[in-house]
Specification:
5-stranded parallel sheet, alpha/beta, 9 helices, globular
């Protein structure tokens, strides 16, 4: 049976870079955030999401205004929870179908930013954590998203502390030097191939 390997890491850790590297090796990688964004645009999901907010959360072209939604939920844990209650079941079902399509592979990678926070690690056979020093993660996220330090720190508040994630993970990669990170990923992939 196909093993499910969770790949996670806090904002700015470099988990997307690692996910892309793994995918370049021909291993199926499911990017949960990308799929969530796509699934959120389905009509039924959009209606449920709009019902959570008193103001319109649509752009002029009737797509979701993600920036506004983020502003509304990141400082409001109960709203974030309500939004997740709409989105996570959609992603969960979509992922189950995706795994069936890839059952001829010994393992697949599920890349999720908030794997532990949602209990998603319980559905994984192993978990790889990508981490980096907090200042480096903040700098990367500010540069990537063109936002200020405070915005990144607010997002980090919704994620489990790195030390807790490390305790819950099977493999931990400290992503400071990308060449070294890729070497460590290669070693882990070899081990996973023997599971």
């Amino acid at each position: 049976m196909t093993k499910i390997i969770g790949l996670t890491g806090g904002i700015g850790s470099g988990k997307s870079t690692v996910a892309n590297y793994i995918a370049s090796k021909g291993i199926p990688v499911y990017i949960a955030d990308d799929e969530a964004k796509r699934l959120m645009e389905l009509d039924e999901a959009k209606q449920k999401i709009q019902s959570l907010f008193s103001e319109s959360i649509f752009n002029k072209d009737q797509t979701l205004n993600r920036k506004r939604i983020a502003e509304l939920v990141f400082n409001n844990p109960s709203k974030l929870q309500e939004l997740n209650a709409v989105v996570h079941p959609l992603v969960h079902q979509h992922f189950k179908n995706w795994v069936k399509e890839h059952e001829n592979f010994p393992f697949v990678i599920k890349e999720v930013a908030i794997l532990f926070e949602t209990g998603g690690n319980k559905q994984c056979d192993k978990v790889i954590l990508i981490t980096a020093p907090e200042d480096l993660r903040i700098e990367r996220a500010c540069n990537r998203d063109n936002v200020d330090r405070e915005t990144v720190l607010n997002r980090m508040k919704n994620q489990l502390p790195e030390a807790e994630k490390e305790l819950l993970s099977d493999y931990v990669i400290h992503n400071i030097d990308l060449k070294q990170t890729f070497k460590e990923v290669d070693v882990i992939l070899k081990k996973l191939g023997k599971l």
